[in-house]
Each structure stands twice: as structure tokens, then as C-alpha cells.
Design a protein that fits this description.
With 148 residues, the chain is mainly alpha-helical. It is built from eight helices and three strands; from the N terminus they run H-E-H-H-E-E-H-H-H-H-H. The protein has a domain of 81 residues: Multidrug-efflux Transporter Regulator, Chain: A, Domain 2 (Orthogonal Bundle). Helix 2 packs across helix 4. The chain is elongated, with a radius of gyration of 25 Å.
């Protein structure tokens, strides 16, 4: 009788990987197609099988995406060794660049908030032909012919 090896006992099907990592099955397949990770092992019948480390890696990718890291940044983090293995200095550089991008976006959002707040304040809420909110959304409304 053949002994069950640890790797064989720890095989995880894609559905279980999805449940454990909280990553949609189609997203797992997408990451495989774009080569975010090496292709998983397959059974004789062609089914994908994963191990416990894959659960950790997919959860790492999911959490990184939740925090706004791009796929390129996540690839770089995974190339550095992924969760538990990467050099803190190199990870810090990637995270610092990402933080700069977030701060720039926050600045843009604050500008947008001020503009929208001013526009909403100018809007009477009545039925009128000139609506400040529509004016900032509709480029055609902004370009009005001069009445001479």
C-alpha cells in the first residue's frame, strides 16, 4: 500500500483555496493567466491543486489589492519573496512609493470635495435651466455661445 505524503494530504482544490483566501475563483484563474504566480500543480485529470502556502499568498494578494497596491507592485513584493520572506528595506521602498501615490490622490480628492461642495451650495434645488451641478458634469453645458 502506498503511503500518503504530506504534500498529497495537503492538496487544496481551487474552490477551497477561494474560500480560505477569500479570493474569487475567477480572480484566481485570472492571476494564473497573467502569470502573477507559477502555474499550480494539476491532478492527472487536469484539476488545479494548491498547497497551504498558496492560501497565504492569495490572501496576501487580496489584502494588497484592498490597500490599493497595483498588480505590478504586488508582483515586485512577491518577487522579493512574498509574505514572510521579503527584505524589509525593499518592501519599504515599494510601500513608500505607494504612500506617495495615495497622498497625491488624497490631495486630488480634497480639491474635488471643495469644488463639489461649492457647486452643491450654489444649487437652489429648484427647477431651473441653469444647474451648477449639471454645468460641471456636462462639458456641452459649460461651452455656451455668446448672446450678442
Amino acid at each position: 500500500m502506498r503511503a500518503i505524503t504530506v504534500s498529497r494530504a495537503e492538496r487544496i482544490a481551487i474552490g477551497e483555496l477561494s474560500r480560505l483566501s477569500r479570493v474569487n475563483i475567477e480572480t484566481i484563474r485570472y492571476y494564473e493567466r497573467i502569470k502573477m504566480l507559477p502555474a499550480p500543480q494539476r491532478t492527472a485529470s487536469g484539476r488545479r491543486v494548491y498547497g497551504p502556502q498558496d492560501v497565504r499568498v492569495f490572501a496576501f494578494i487580496r489584502r494588497s489589492r484592498e490597500l490599493g497596491f497595483s498588480l505590478g507592485e504586488i508582483r515586485a513584493l512577491l518577487r522579493l519573496g512574498g509574505p514572510g520572506n521579503a527584505s524589509c528595506r525593499e518592501v519599504r521602498e515599494i510601500a513608500a512609493r505607494h504612500l506617495e501615490e495615495i497622498r497625491a490622490k488624497l490631495g486630488d480628492l480634497k480639491k474635488l470635495e471643495r469644488l463639489l461642495a461649492k457647486t452643491v451650495a450654489r444649487c437652489s434645488g429648484n427647477t431651473v435651466s441653469d444647474c451648477p451641478v449639471l454645468d460641471i458634469l456636462d462639458i456641452q453645458r459649460q461651452v455656451r455661445p455668446l448672446h450678442i
